[in-house]
Amino acid sequence: MPIKREMMIRRDALEQIAINETIAPGPKDGEVLLEIEAFALTANNVTYAVVGETVKYWNFFPAAEGWGIVPVWGHARVTASRHPEIAVGERVYGYLPMATHLIVQPGKVSAGLFRDMAEHRRPMATVYNQYKRLAADPSHDPAREDVRMLFEPLFLTSFLIEDQLRRADWQGAGNVILTSASSKTAMGLAHVARAASPGITRICLTSGGNAAFVEETGLYDRVVTYDALDELEIGGKAVVVDFAGNAQLLADLAARLGEQLAYVLKVGVTHHDEGEAVPTSGPKPVWFFAPDAAAALIAEQGPEAFQAGVAGRWSGFLADADGWVTVDARRGSDALQQVWRDQVAGRAKPDVGYVMRW
User: Fold this and answer.
1) Could you list the residue range(s) of the whole structural domain that residue 127 is in?
2) Which of 58, 295, 301, 302 could form a disulfide with 52 if both were Cys (CB 3.0 to 4.6 A apart)?
3) 185 alpha carbon, distance to own chain's centre
4) Which residues have C-beta within 8 Å of that of residue 358, sequence separation ≥ 6?
5) Residue 277: pLDDT band with limits 50, 70, 90
6) Where are the beta strands (DSSP E) in the chain?
7) Residue 66: which CATH number?
8) Higher pLDDT, 90 or 315
9) CA–CA separation, 181 vs 150, rounded Å?
10) Does 307 fall in a domain?
11) Same-domain status, 185 and 218
């Protein structure tokens, strides 16, 4: 049997890493063994780790006490199967561990999908347990697998945020302020808002080092750096979509905008080391959880209309994203550890997307 490698993170110290090696298990009746080919590593994965306890992200791929395996999105191949409908050699896309192998128990199998029915995963949101079978996946483009891993999960969150805010008439605001605006999810939201809510002014908050990059994307009407927050002026009210997770920044925005700040939606925690407490002034932040939003929208529209709506925006986003981000493909456990530490420390470049292979 092959060697299974997995990267474990200390839950209370995300920069501490251990590489665990064991013999990859063989599948039992009804199971298949996936060999993980490649996965994206972004700030979104740091968010999974930071909120892993509260949102149960650590539960997907159990690890030793005090440690966790961070979920990622990527591609895998079936290398052993004891399931009658899943053949060896088949490739899938979905939610995977930072590891070389994964045992799944396929259920609710269709031509395009199956769901991992492992007992510990059943309480989790369906969107995280589904695997797309690439041979029958209309959105699969072999030439753009890297871009899909980097952007598709984040873009769906972006799409759902815009949909929710638009349905709420943007809380009566004419401006949206995006913190950590160089993050891929923020860029996706700016893209969708530009297309679906053109009357909303998109204001970027970013670091001085990332200002030129976000300016060049053309996604934002205005670019403001964190150290120039006292220069922020808006007409009317604003919604803040917070991808940074920095309570002091939210407090500073509340102080600057006063009654002009209508609503705060928290999505990510890219600045997790700078404070996560609830700010003491301004509207109380509301957490956004994409799986709940997706389930509600699918229930309202039906799965086909939902998928069509996402696909329509996704194709336009891909055309733009090709000009923003260069894929940096890395291989090996040393590279994986380095990229992870860079993401945790906020050192990763916004114009680079990291795709990892063992």
Assistant:
1) 3-140+327-357
2) 58
3) 7
4) 5, 36, 100, 331, 332, 333, 336
5) very low
6) 3-10, 13-23, 32-41, 67-68, 71-81, 91-97, 101-104, 106-107, 113-116, 130-133, 175-178, 201-206, 222-225, 238-242, 261-266, 286-287, 326-331, 352-357
7) 3.90.180.10
8) 90
9) 16
10) no
11) yes
Residue 251 DSSP SS3 = helix
In a domain, 349, yes or no: yes
Domain of 255, CATH number, reads 3.40.50.720
139: Cα separation from own chain's centroid: 18
346: phi > 0 → left, psi -120 to 50 → alpha, else beta; which?
left
Same domain (yes/no): 131, 187: no
Among candidate residues 196, 223, 193, the one with its CA nearest the CA of residue 208: 223
Side-by-side strand order, sheet with 261-266 = 222-225, 201-206, 175-178, 238-242, 261-266, 286-287
Domain count along the chain: 2
Q: Which residue has the tokens 């997907």?
A: 60
> What would the two tokens of residue 304 be?
């086909």
Distances from the Cα of 308 to the Cα of 260, 314, 318, angstroms = 36, 10, 15
Candidates 178, 40, 44, 150; CA nearest to 96 is 40
With beta carbons less than 8 A apart as the criterion, state whether 242 and 179 touch. yes
Q: What digits encode the pLDDT tens for the residues 201-256?
A: 999 999 999 999 999 999 999 999 999 999 999 999 999 999 888 889 999 999 99
- Say if 300 falls within a structural domain: no
**25-83 tens-digit pLDDT:** 999 999 999 999 999 999 889 989 998 998 899 999 999 999 999 999 999 999 999 99
- Output the six-digit token pair for 149: 């891993």
Phi, psi of 30 (to 5 degrees): 85, 0
For residues 7 and 119, membership in a common domain is answered with yes
Residues 6+ apart with CB under 8 A from 95: 60, 71, 72, 73, 128, 129, 130, 131
**What is the Cα–Cα distance from 314 to 327, expressed in whole angstroms?**
18
Distance CA 327, CA 280 (A): 40
Closest C-alpha among 146, 166, 164 to residue 156:
164
